[in-house]
Amino acid sequence: MKKTLMILMLTLLSAVLLTGCASNADTLASPTPGATNMLDNLMPGTGTATASPMMDNTTMQPDGTASPAATIEDTRKAVQAMEEAVEKLSEVDDAYVITLGDTALVGLEFENQYQGGTDDRLKKMVLARLQTVDKNISKVALTSDEPLVTSIEALTEALKSASSLEDVNNRAEEVLKQLTVYGG
């Protein structure tokens, strides 16, 4: 009886020790390299066209990363979406946004009951909201100063009727010089 109990306990101990050696590695099958588009490789012209570097609609950023070239219409849509995202904050009544590279200029009008200002907590929340729309935004220049908010609002209105981003960006750079940039 003791011998059987001892063998049972030894077997149980061995099983417990061996489960510690089990691997927790991912067991999903990995795709075979080169298995996709084999027909295209064998018979060019039978599949979908692949983009050449010359057909690519990207621009190079100063840090060497590629980003899609923004059209004026894409910028308008992104700015509108950013304004709506920021306005969802309970502190904010109205927001005006202009993007300049990886920086967003944001003019805020607060709800009447909000007594705080543009502190780091609010800047962080606004930046997070902007990044839900555009991941490339890494800095925010935030203001609630009425003349600067009016300037940013004027820029958003100018963007609606602008034919190119150059004029709006030049004016936005002038406003940015008057603001403190958060993030980055």
What does this structure look like?
This protein is α+β, with helices and mostly antiparallel strands and 184 residues long. The protein contains six helices and six strands. It has helices at 2-19, 38-42, 72-87, 120-133, 146-161, 165-176, and strands at 58-60, 66-68, 92-100, 103-110, 139-143, 181-183. The strands form two sheets. The chain has a four-stranded mixed beta sheet, with helices on both faces. The protein has a two-stranded antiparallel ribbon with strand order 1-2. The radius of gyration is 28 Å and the shape is elongated.
Secondary structure elements and pairings:
Blueprint: H1 2-19, H2 38-42, E1 58-60, E2 66-68, H3 72-87, E3 92-100, E4 103-110, H4 120-133, E5 139-143, H5 146-161, H6 165-176, E6 181-183
Parallel strand pairs: 4-5
Antiparallel strand pairs: 1-2, 3-4, 5-6
Helix pairs in contact: 3-4, 5-6
Strand order of the largest sheet: 3-4-5-6
Approximately what portion of the residues adopt beta-strand conformation? Answer: 15-25%
Q: What order do the SSEs take from the amino end to the carboxyl end, as H and E?
A: HHEEHEEHEHHE
Tell me which oligomeric state these chains represent: single chain
The termini sit apart by: 72 Å
Number of strands: 6
Structural class by secondary-structure content: alpha+beta
Helix content: 40-55%
